[in-house]
Amino acid sequence: MYDAIVIGAGPAGLQAALTLGRMHRSTLLLDSGEYRNGTVLHMHNMVGADGTPPAEFRATARTELAAYDDVEIRETAATSVTGVEDAFVVGLVDGSEVEGRRVILATGVADELPTAPGLQDLWGTLAFSCPFCDGHEHAGKDIAIIGAAPRAEHLIGLLGRIVASITVVPIGEKFADDDLRALEAKGAQVSRTPIASVERVDDGVRILTDDERVVAGVFVAAGAMRQRSPFAAQLGLDMLESGCIEIDEFGRTSRPGVFAAGDLAHRATLPGPMASVLLAAAAGQLAAVGIIQSLLAAEN
Question: Cα 9 vs. chain centroid, distance in angstroms?
Answer without folding.
Answer: 12
